[in-house]
Structure formats: C-alpha cells, structure tokens
Amino acid sequence: MALKRPSFLPSLDELEQQAQSRSSQRGRPGSHFDHPTAKALFVAVLAVTVIAHVVGGIVFLVLGH
C-alpha cells in the first residue's frame, strides 16, 4: 500500500522550481548578508571588538611602563 502525499505539501517538481528560482536570485553586489539582523549583530560585535582592542592598548601602554 503506497502512502499518498498530503495535499498541503508541495510536490517535488514545485520544490525544485522554488530552489532554482532562489538560487538564480542574487543579493546586492558586495552584500554578504541576507538578513538585516545578522548584519546588525556583525557590526555590533565588530565595533565592540575594535573598542576593546583600543581600550586594551591604551591600558597596556599606561600600565606597562
């Protein structure tokens, strides 16, 4: 007895067509972020890292001598 695919699920042909259309769509040139939250998080972490290194360098110079 073969199981029938539920009607609410897309067929394999539909899934393949969706995958091809997604792969043909490219993001903006130079953009590596598809999600704005990911970009914001990356920028925030990058800023905190740079600030921490600058503050650490200043502390190292002041207390190192």
TrEMBL record:
The chain crosses the membrane at residues 40-63. Residues 17-30 have a biased composition (Low complexity). Keywords: Membrane, Transmembrane, Transmembrane helix. It comes from the Bacteria. Residues 1-32 are annotated as: Disordered. This is Uncharacterized protein. The lineage of its organism: Bacteria, Bacillati, Actinomycetota, Actinomycetes, Streptosporangiales.
